Amino acid sequence: MRDHAAPQGAQAALRAIRLLKLFAAETSELQLAEISVSAGLNKTTTHRLLQALHSEEMLERNPATGAYRLGSAMMALGVQALSGNELRLRARPMLRRLADETGETATLEVPVDDTMLILDEVTTKHFVGASGNVGTRWPIHATSTGKALIAFEQCGVQRLNSDLTALTAHTITRLDTLENQLSDIRRRGFAETVDELEDGFSGVGVAVRGGMGEVLGALSICGPTQRLSEARRTQLGATLCTVASRLQPRY
Amino acid sequence: MRDHAAPQGAQAALRAIRLLKLFAAETSELQLAEISVSAGLNKTTTHRLLQALHSEEMLERNPATGAYRLGSAMMALGVQALSGNELRLRARPMLRRLADETGETATLEVPVDDTMLILDEVTTKHFVGASGNVGTRWPIHATSTGKALIAFEQCGVQRLNSDLTALTAHTITRLDTLENQLSDIRRRGFAETVDELEDGFSGVGVAVRGGMGEVLGALSICGPTQRLSEARRTQLGATLCTVASRLQPRY
DNA sequence: AACACAATTTCATTATATGGAACTCTAATG
DNA sequence: CATTAGAGTTCCATATAATGAAATTGTGTT
User: Which pLDDT band holds residue B174 (cuts at 50, 70, 90)?
Assistant: First the structure.
């Protein structure tokens, strides 16, 4: 993506993929006309690409309304992507321990465009399985994980547009303000979010690397701002850095 | 797909999608050369399409080997597809009841090309959550769910090639033999597999429909052949037909 | 019946996709 | 060290496939 630009000569393929991504939003069903507008593509072209996606079961259609939604092939590939994700498997026991030791919520997240996708989450309230936020996505600029990621990822900042959406009164909405934080994050090794994603919600995040040092995602510990004082956040940051470095494979 | 042919004028998009589908198999990482061969595409073309998929994070690369694997965007879309799937949500309580009442394993499955993807599964051994087979795919021709599906789905048989892979000595390997079963399945309302997928494993499956009668997937009850006598399978078939019809939304 | 808007189809033009060939990179071998 | 093999990447001319304007069909509402 940002460190690998889209190639010349694959416009149609890219357009199809970008159509698919429209369905990653909360709205599960979309009609041709709205898709065409959202994608900024001619209706005929959109129609043709949707038919291609439909013919391969990446999208299916609601027969009552004709609207498109993600299909069974998408499910199969998604499940395969998740179950093949080594990081997720390796991180689970560590997440659980983090949640135990801190009494807060621990998450593993990976970047998707300008968001962070929660891959796994362990809270102290339920130790059983994935909890409610797995699969949700949150803006990079408002999350500790997102900030940690772009601080360490090559060309990470390029994931963001110049206008950052305000989620609370505390959200950083200027790219240059955010960029000013990055060297500090790099120095300390962790990033923070304080009432930026949601009022009363704070978190600490660190980047997670693969065996060759490449940034794969991020870990976080998060909870009510009330409980996450600055001193505590610093402590949690140090804990997370230790865990992240243990999570990195050695070659 | 089979009832909707691939359009003219979307060759590149289709090729990209078909490359993605190569990663649905068990092998999680693939290199350019093998992908090119598997896809039957020129290496340059393959490379370009892979770059497109990579730039959108549908695929990511192992930096040590350069090999491609499914990426974070695939995970996000897959999770979205699963969580948006109404059938899965509606079927869960029924699956649990089925497993309780029968003492066997109950599954919900949807078709992906010539396979059935297990979307949900409840066994009597663990009532807690998804068990080990969710996300796995099995050949349509050897599963009760697959047979039930193609019996009722428009142009369902077109999902299959003329040569059906033998998994056991009992697997049906001729398309015409399988086609001969379909009218019987339609008459009875359910389909069976007996030692066809795996020796000692049998199942009963029924098609599941949406509100306009369109075939969405299938339900099954399965277990050791020893326990699933013909008489019992008939009984289970009737039970499944009742459940399937309760599962169908009414408009 | 008329109207509005959704979806689908047609077809001429040309932009984009294609693939052969060359090049670069990396690892293994003599 | 030089050579070889095979992986990945880049270049570029050509023609194929993609594009989109316009027309047609389908559906629901008044």
Answer: very high
A236 to chain B, closest Cα gap in Å: 26
d(C-alpha A237, C-alpha A234), whole Å:
5
A57: Cβ–Cβ under 8 A, 6 or more apart, which residues? A71, A72, A73, A74, B1, B111, B112, B113
Final residue in a domain of this structure, among A77, A93, A111: A77
Helix (H, G, I), strand (E, B) or coil at A77: helix
Q: Measured in Å, how far apart are chain A's first and last C-alpha atoms?
A: 25
Q: Are residues B72 and B164 in the same domain?
A: no
Cα B7 to Cα B238: distance, rounded to the nearest angstrom: 40
Q: Which among B51, B79, B113 is the nearest to A4, CB-wise?
A: B51
B4 chain-A contacts, CB cut-off 8 A: 51, 54-55
d(CA B147, CA B175): 12
Q: Is residue A22, in this structure, part of any structural domain at all? A: yes
> pLDDT tier at A198 (50, 70, 90 boundaries)?
very high
Residues B63 and B90 in one domain: no
Q: To which residue do tokens 């009218």 refer? A: B183
Nearest nt by C1' to B8 Cα: D17
Q: Is the pLDDT of residue A128 over 50?
A: no
B111 near A CB under 8 A: yes
Q: Domain of residue A169: give its range.
A: 85-247
pLDDT for res A129? 43
Is A85 part of the contact surface with chain B (CB cutoff 8 Å)?
Answer: yes
Q: In chain B, what residues touch A9 (CB-CB under 8 Å)?
A: 48
**What is the predicted pLDDT for the residue at B154?**
86
User: For residue A80, which of B224, B203, B22 has the smallest C-alpha distance?
Assistant: B22
pLDDT bucket at B130, cuts 50 / 70 / 90: very low
Read off the tokens for A62.
């609601």
Number of Cβ within a 10 Å radius of residue A223: 21
Range name among A40-54, A66-80, A113-127, A227-241 with the lowest pLDDT average: A113-127
**Poorest-pLDDT segment among A17-31, A193-207, B107-121:** A17-31
The mean predicted confidence, pLDDT, of chain B is 92
pLDDT of residue B238: 97
Ordered DSSP codes for A25-75: SS---B-HHHHHHHHT--HHHHHHHHHHHHHTTSEEE-TTT--EEE-HHHH
Please give the tally of structural domains in chain A.
2
User: Residues 150 to 179 of A: which have CB under 8 A from any B CB?
Assistant: none
